[in-house]
Amino acid sequence: MQIVVTLDCVDTEAQANFWLAALAPLDYRRGFHGPPYLSLVGPAPAPTLLLQHVPEPKQGKNRMHLDLDFGAADLAPEVDRLERLGAARLSEELSEHGFRWIVVADPEGNEFCVFNPPNSTNVAE
């Protein structure tokens, strides 16, 4: 089985550049490119991120989003890195059931979370 996450976007090239830089620690690269699609693939079993060109900008809250664990105990520096790439921080650090996360949006406003799971070896005691 393969999981492909499709992200609607107005500018697939700009979004590809952002997401390749954002996912750099995970070694993503460009895959299939045939308009209106551009895929970003990571090492197995990482899901493929399929960018799909649509004419309208995002409206409203995402019903599905990505949660990214970069393995960092301190989430703020990772979110700062993403902001330098064009992301926008949408929340302060939140926590629930041992999970810690910060809500972020990509340059076209698609929300995602940078998180650290409970009982992670990345969490500073």
Automatic annotation (TrEMBL):
Q: Where is the Glyoxalase-like domain?
A: 5-115
Superkingdom field: Bacteria
| Gene3D superfamilies, per database record | 2,3-Dihydroxybiphenyl 1,2-Dioxygenase, domain 1
Matching entries from PANTHER family are given as: CONSERVED PROTEIN (PTHR35908:SF1), HYPOTHETICAL FUSION PROTEIN (PTHR35908)
- Which protein, by its recorded name, is this? VOC family protein
Q: Which organism is it from?
A: Streptomyces yanii
